[in-house]
Design goal:
299 residues; alpha/beta; UDP-N-acetylmuramoyl-L-alanine:D-glutamate ligase; 4-stranded mixed sheet; 9 helices; 34% helix; 22% strand; Carboh/pur_kinase_PfkB_CS; kinase; Carbohydrate kinase PfkB domain-containing protein; PfkB_dom
Length: 299
């Protein structure tokens, strides 16, 4: 079972609205690829929250994992696309997912059963969110994958959040901008390859996935490094959620113990396919059919 901890929200585009949030996108993809997924999140007890509950029920998620907040609203993000379809985000602050609660009698057993535990940075931006998410993910077993999708958003992270999260992880995913920001935060003056080795050694990581947009992606492991050129979509609607799609396919490959060169190839292809649709998640299950055979049992 895969356990995902993090935000679910509405992405508000200039002319349409889509369900989003990196952790939800990640969970949605893996569920549609056939994996058992539990998704822990928190939404407002408001009209947006009620819409989300209805959608999650339709998508067959366990609603018992979704907390309702009577004080804070459901999360939203204003999304503006540039001429190349690259998104810029304006994230609403002080929303329900900032106050996710740790429920020991529920979360300890759930995390203990997980084969992979996913978490990011945004859900930890508040002090309460940071403390409670850290308590939740602390319960993973030593054999489970701790998957930290770094996803740094402006004014939504700090040194301690990143450091503590890296210590909980053995696999991380980040893009080139986030990689450079980590170098800056850690005041690391040596070259990028040395920084990769530093991260592997200092935090006990096994996997570092680095995406570089149109320049492709790299996968660093303790047994070697792998690179691939970016897959070219037939047409680009936007690139919203491409990184989340990449992360989902990376996690699926890790769970299935696929060779790194196959994992990176599948992740690139899947992320490219997401760029061909509007928003981060497909509107039909048929979208996943070309990718499902490689994960036939989903276990």
């Amino acid at each position: 079972m895969i356990c995902v901890v993090g935000e679910i929200l509405f992405d508000v585009f200039p002319s349409y609205i889509r369900l989003g949030g990196a952790p939800f996108n990640f969970a949605f993809h893996l569920k549609n690829l056939g994996f058992p997924v539990r998704f822990i999140s928190r939404i407002g007890n408001d009209p947006d929250g009620k819409k989300i509950l209805g959608l999650l029920e339709m998508y067959r998620f366990d609603l018992n994992d979704i907390q309702l907040d009577d004080i804070h609203p459901t999360g939203t993000v204003r999304v503006k696309l540039d001429e190349y379809g690259v998104p810029q985000f304006r994230i609403t602050s002080n929303v329900a997912y900032d106050y996710i609660e740790f429920i020991p009698e529920v979360h300890r057993e759930l995390i203990r059963q997980a084969e992979l535990v996913y978490f990011g940075s945004l859900v930890q931006r508040s002090q309460q969110g940071f403390e409670n998410v850290q308590k939740i993910i602390a319960g993973k077993t030593s054999s489970a994958v701790g998957f930290y999708d770094i996803n740094l958003r402006p004014d939504c992270y700090n040194d301690r959040l990143i450091s503590e999260s890296l210590l909980r992880a053995n696999a991380i995913k980040l893009n080139q901008e986030e990689f450079e920001e980590l170098k800056r935060l850690m005041m690391f003056g040596k070259n990028s390859r040395s920084f990769v080795q530093h991260l592997l050694d200092a935090y006990g990581l096994n996997i570092i996935s680095l995406t570089k947009g149109h320049e492709g992606s790299d996968l660093y492991t303790r047994n070697g490094n792998f690179s691939i050129d970016a897959a070219k979509p037939e047409m680009v609607a936007d690139s919203v959620g491409a990184g989340d799609a990449y992360a989902a396919m990376l996690a699926a490959g890790l769970i299935k113990n696929m060779p790194p060169e196959i994992i990176i190839q599948n992740a690139s292809a899947f992320a490219s396919s997401i760029c061909e649709i509007k928003g981060a998640i497909p509107g039909t299950e048929a979208f996943y059919e070309p990718f499902q055979p490689m994960f036939a049992d989903g276990e």
